[in-house]
Design brief:
mainly alpha; about 75% helix; Growth Hormone, Chain: A; about 500 residues; globular
Length: about 500
């Protein structure tokens, strides 16, 4: 059954509730970053320990997202949303009342367990609620929600931290989460026909070890170094168990995560482009704050404000690009966006001590303008080629690989920057005839850090250039006429939503 109304209209009220829930879970992800120093001071923990508030969140997402394809097929939208929003609300309350780091970390991981279900659930509802010819516009609005939350996150967090205790970040979210939970309880009325699906717990174990190992290994590389057993053993375990997981899924009649989505060329291409760009885009999110705060001495609040115009522009352009996608397809948008992103990323590799604040704001805004033409159009084009019964698997695969590529990109770029920074500092110290003064040492370290940042942006340029080359092979995807796999019986993909 379709998610659209009997009148042919999508269930906009229900989608709105789901979007508000997704918005606050996305907002929560970026709110906490700027509060980490305050948390370190009050709870008396060091940087590697406090980093677990973000690494732990990412790990739980990486472990749970692969199960969402099974959950979406097995349970109703109502049940999944209420469980996800309930977990998120409980985690938020627990985090806001925490006076020990272990309690705060537990609250964050409970939040993550709810957040992991939210995004794939919303994407699946969007896919089955709108016909292919209108899906670009719908996903564009979804992109607006997705991009606007992280856009306001750092600035809002900076303002709250300056005026209130860091716990206010959670107290601010709690009543909104509770209201959304109540609205979902009242408005979501869909029923789910009984589906004879069983979760393969051994596959779940392999998936958890595979994706969890990769995420932990790569996210730890920046702080522990690539030669740490924690890093390389985690990555080895992740790779081995992930290969085992994929082989096992290919032999099952109803796999937990169906990698058969990759036999559709446009989905495979969109997945490759998204992963590469996802890795490279972290150069801007990670390196710019380091540059402006550490090298230029700009305050955290002003650093957040510097990123705000670009993030808002990205969000505003999302629905516009959705309409353009419906009209012209994903190829022209991706090529245009990746060309802009390639040029601006290269320009970011030429930063100096005199680069003006205005120049940084404008260049970052133009870069985000380019990025806005890439993610939603490319991923929507890929999902459009999938048969309907593959939607839960396509969204789960996309979201899982986005988590993994983000972790890999973060570790790769931090390692590149650190290696180049050390080499530049060593060369500068060797060039000095005498023992450096304290002032000289500070300047050498700042110069070396700037070299590391510029070098990392330069390497990121080549990653995005690779995506640009791949974008030329994009074709407008059409859903197969026969949307059912005749070889294997597929479970019903999506629940029917009652009129709200």
């Amino acid at each position: 059954m379709d998610l659209t109304m009997k009148s042919g209209r999508p269930p906009y009220g229900i989608i709105t509730v789901l979007m508000i829930g997704a918005f606050i879970s996305f907002l929560n992800n970026t709110l906490l970053n700027i509060a980490l120093p305050a948390i370190m001071t009050e709870l008396k923990v060091d940087p590697p320990t406090v980093q677990w508030l973000t690494t732990g969140f990412m790990l739980v997402n990486g472990v749970l997202i692969p199960t969402t394809a099974y959950l979406i097929q097995k349970y109703s939208v109502r049940r999944l949303f209420l469980v996800a929003m309930g977990l998120f609300t409980i985690g938020t309350i627990l985090s806001g009342t925490a006076h020990e780091f272990s309690i705060l970390l537990l609250g964050r991981m409970i939040q993550a367990s709810g957040s992991a279900i939210m995004m794939p659930l919303l994407m699946n509802v969007m896919l089955v609620s709108f016909p292919v010819e209108k899906r670009g516009t719908a996903m564009g609005v979804f992109g607006l929600i997705l991009m606007f939350a992280p856009a306001i996150g750092p600035t809002l967090s900076g303002w709250i931290i300056e005026h209130y205790d860091w716990r206010m970040l959670f107290h601010f979210i709690t009543p909104i989460a509770a209201i959304v939970l109540i609205l979902g309880f009242i408005m979501l009325k869909d029923k789910k026909e009984k589906v004879t699906l069983r979760l393969d717990f051994f596959s779940l174990l392999l998936s958890s070890l595979g994706f969890g190992g990769l995420l932990y290994g790569f996210s730890s590389a920046g702080s522990k170094g690539w030669d740490s057993p924690h890093v390389y053993l985690s990555i080895i375990v992740g790779v081995v168990t992930l290969v085992w997981f994929i082989v096992r899924q290919s032999k099952q009649e109803n796999p937990m995560l169906n990698f058969g989505v990759y036999k559709y060329p446009m989905f495979a291409l969109s997945s490759a482009i998204s992963m590469i760009v996802n890795m490279a885009m972290f150069s801007g999110f990670l390196l710019l704050p380091i540059y402006v705060q550490t090298i230029r001495g700009i305050s955290p609040m002003d650093a957040g404000l510097m990123l705000l115009p670009g993030a808002i522009l990205n969000a505003v352009m999302s629905p516009i690009n959705g309409r353009l996608f419906d009209k012209f397809g994903g190829r022209i948008l991706a090529i245009t966006g990746l060309t802009i992103t390639t040029v601006t990323t290269y320009l970011f590799s030429q930063l100096t001590f005199e680069t003006t604040y205005t120049y940084l704001v404008v260049l970052h805004a133009v870069r985000m303008f380019g990025m806005s033409m890439v993610f939603m159009p490319v991923s929507t084009n890929g999902l459009n080629q999938l048969p309907r019964q593959f939607y839960p698997h396509g969204t789960a695969v996309n979201n899982t690989l986005n988590q993994v590529s983000a972790a890999i990109g973060t570790a790769f770029l931090i390692t590149l920057m650190s290696t180049k920074q050390e080499a530049s500092a060593k060369t500068a110290l060797e060039a000095l005839a005498a023992q450096p003064t304290e002032a000289q040492l500070i300047q050498i370290n700042l110069n070396a850090m700037l070299d590391g940042i510029n070098y990392t942006f330069f390497i990121s340029t080549f990653l995005i250039l690779l995506s640009l080359i791949l974008a030329f092979f994009i074709k407008r995807a059409r859903q197969p006429v026969d949307s059912v796999d005749k070889k294997k019986p597929e479970p019903k993909a999506a629940p029917a939503l009652a009129k709200n």
